Known about the structure:
This protein is mainly alpha-helical. The protein is about 45% helix and about 10% strand. It has helices at about 5-15, 25-40, and strands at about 55, 60. A two-stranded antiparallel ribbon has the order 1-2. Strand 1 (about 55) and strand 2 (about 60) form a beta hairpin. The longest helix is centred in the middle third of the chain and has 19 residues, at about 25-40. It is elongated and about 45 Å long.
Amino acid sequence: HPFPPEIAHFIECIDNDVESHASIHDTYRSMAICFAIDESAARGGMPVKVNYQIAQTEGALVGASPKAAGA
């Protein structure tokens, strides 16, 4: 695996029943930025708005731009 320290930290958090310093909200924000980068690249480098809105739909987090999803 390319991220041994991160995996070790994750396992330590599970073993000790503590939340990681990298929360699901931080991860979601990082992914929103990645989706915006992909969308911008697909639009020839045009700026796009990053959607940080987290919505709950039938147990799944949603929030990527509809354009990034192909809509």
